[in-house]
Amino acid sequence: MLKITKFGGSSVANSAQFKKVKDIVLSDPSRRYVVVSAPGRRNSSDSKITDLLYLLDAHRQYHVDASNVFKLIKQRFMDIKNELGLKQPIEKELDAMYTNLNQMTQDEIVSRGEYFCAKLMAEYLGYAFVDAKDVIRFHLDKTINWEVTTQKLNAKCAQYEHFVFPGFYGTNSSGQIQVFSRGGGDITGSILAKCLEADEYENWTDVSGFLMADPRIVENPEQIKYITYTELRELSYMGASVLHEEAIFPVKEKNIPIHILNTNRPQDFGTYIQETKTKNHFPITGIAGKKDFVSIYIYKKHMSNEVGFIRRALSILESYNVSIEHIPSGIDSFSIVVEKKEVENSLYEILARFKAELKPDDLSIQDDLALISTVGQNMSDKPGTSGRLFSALGKENINIRMIAQSSSEINITVGVKKKDFERTIKAIYSAFVNEE
């Protein structure tokens, strides 16, 4: 049994969290390879180390004195070192980093949070430290060079029975450090799990897995114990976030389960993400939504006889680099739903081009739309699911402005007015969970 075990920023925020990590790792011999993020916030008024490193780089770029920012960063790491009685001479490396700041790239600077955290964690656990820059390789297009990365990683595993590995970065084809997008530590853990063909990828954070709805909207929502990769992708896209969504793809290819767990409550079951469809107690898996969408309605008589009409409309949006969410359609009309931020600077230009090039009989917009997705692989096995959902919204006098259902029948998305966003989520949750 091999588990890749990744700890997020909240799990390594201070020496007390380091102690929890050690208890977790040493309690299971299959946790041989540990990935860590940079230390996160210790409290609500605190700063993440990565944010401070980006600030340090900004000071460097604009030739502003960065000594105070550097002192904050150095003190965070020194506090962890001293409180745990560690001997790792990181203060020398930290001072050298600050001295050579102008010779470093932004990616190298912001990667140091994970680097120093991994060095301290390695000593604290009694494990080897393996630097991500010596293992993870990127192609020129910033994609992972899987062949080289796998080869180098297996060599490190042959050398060390246990090691700690910094998340968030690797090395590009020019030999320079390159980082992932924010939250990239999740991706690093996923890469290790895939390359080593692990039995499980544990992702330890500060929540006990996924909830069926946003707890800020629904009081004490049920926990999701099992979820498929596809369901997670649907919910993540609509705003549910515990895991960086790019972390899904490497392990999905190998069908390696991801187990989301809580460092502060290791006894909790958490959430398993796996490809195998699992029978949950409820007919739905979860509900998620986002506000601030715009719907552009286009009507033209005999549109269905006009070849390429919708394509021409989409080409106009493509020329403005606008990403499209949904296209509900009728015989002679259709709507194009996009995020408001995608068109906030170009909406009226787009409408003008629609009028000039498509010559519609009616063209209108609705700019106060919210989308809510109800997701669940078990919905396809339950006749009347859609009717149950629409009935629940009807009872609450919520007007549905748009309906979209995926061909796989695991997702029903409704568009409602922004003011009805929270009421819609509560109504759907009550219909499928409280009434079960």
From TrEMBL:
Q: Keyword Secreted: yes or no?
A: no
GO biological process terms held by the UniProt record: diaminopimelate biosynthetic process; homoserine biosynthetic process; lysine biosynthetic process via diaminopimelate; threonine biosynthetic process
Q: Which residues bind substrate?
A: T50, E114
Q: Name the domain of life this protein comes from.
A: Bacteria
Keyword GTP-binding in record: no
Q: Where is the ACT domain?
A: 374-436
One Pfam family, short name please?
Answer: ACT_9
Question: Which enzyme type, at the first EC level?
Answer: transferase
Where does the record locate the signal sequence feature? none
Q: Where does ATP bind?
A: K6, F7, G8, G9, T205, D206, R216
CDD domains, alphabetized:
ACT_AKiii-YclM-BS_2
What's in the keyword line of the UniProt record?
Amino-acid biosynthesis, ATP-binding, Diaminopimelate biosynthesis, Kinase, Lysine biosynthesis, Nucleotide-binding, Transferase
Q: In which pathway does it act?
A: Amino-acid biosynthesis; L-lysine biosynthesis via DAP pathway; (S)-tetrahydrodipicolinate from L-aspartate: step 1/4; Amino-acid biosynthesis; L-methionine biosynthesis via de novo pathway; L-homoserine from L-aspartate: step 1/3; Amino-acid biosynthesis; L-threonine biosynthesis; L-threonine from L-aspartate: step 1/5
Q: Tell me one GO molecular function of this protein.
A: ATP binding
Protein family: Belongs to the aspartokinase family.
* Function field: Catalyzes the phosphorylation of the beta-carboxyl group of aspartic acid with ATP to yield 4-phospho-L-aspartate, which is involved in the branched biosynthetic pathway leading to the biosynthesis of amino acids threonine, isoleucine and methionine.
Q: What is the protein's given name?
A: Aspartokinase
